[in-house]
Amino acid sequence: MERGASHKSEYFAGEVFAMAGASEQHITIVSNLTYLFVSQFKARACKAYSNEMKICVAATGLFTYPDVVIVCGDPVFHDVQRDVLLNPQVLIEVLSDSTEAYDRGKKFEHYRSIDTVTDYILLSQDRPKVEHFTREAGGRWLYTALVGIESVLEIPSVKCRLVLADVYDKVVPLV
């Protein structure tokens, strides 16, 4: 049903939830992130997908569209359509007022059940702020927050570095 729909939806526990459109700031941040990752992955076996790539959380049955998904090595797909990824490594969400509680809570709970996920990253869309959760040995998650346009986010699991000035380039208004 989703493949033929004119809009994107999340699917969980037999229910379909329509997804709202995004703000200009949100779209700009996602575009900037995708560009920054793709440029760093040129000679490597990693891919960055924007918010058109759906993932399946096999353990819980959630089908959803993260804002940015990174996979290194061979992507594993749900079926031959190759539009539902099963082995994401880094998941990124740009927060909005309507989704922030869900992204921090239930959605992160779903994401933590994916064995291949090493990093979960949340970005504010109205100021240069990044929250990075990194999976450690034993299943613990390390939290790091960066605030300020001069900050640099290091993602060792995929050997990437993001300067927040680049992530938030042309995001207006920026507080």
Structure write-up:
With 175 residues, the chain is of the alpha+beta class. The protein has a single domain (2-167), classed as Alpha-Beta Complex (tt1808, chain A). 19% of the residues lie in helices and 33% in strands. It has helices spanning 24-40, 100-104, 106-112, 164-167; strands spanning 9-12, 15-18, 46-49, 54-57, 62-64, 68-72, 84-85, 90-94, 119-123, 129-135, 141-147, 152-155, 160-163. Strands 3-6-8-9-10-11 form a 6-stranded mixed β-sheet, covered by helices on one side. A 3-stranded mixed β-sheet has the order 5-4-7, with no helix packed on it. The protein is globular and about 40 Å long. The model is unreliable at 5-9 (pLDDT under 50).
**Strand segment tally:** 13
CATH architecture: Alpha-Beta Complex
CATH class: Alpha Beta
The major pleated sheet works out as: 6 strands, mixed
Rounded average pLDDT = 89
Distance between the termini: 41 Å
Structural class: alpha+beta
Number of domains: 1
Rg, Å, rounded: 15 Å
Listing every helix as H and every strand as E from the N terminus to the C terminus, the arrangement reads: EEHEEEEEEHHEEEEEH
Report strand order across the widest sheet: 3-6-8-9-10-11
Name given to the CATH homologous superfamily: tt1808, chain A
CATH topology: tt1808, chain A
Percentage of residues in helical conformation: 10-25%
Residue stretches low in confidence (pLDDT < 50, at least 5 long) are: 5-9
The coarse overall form would be globular
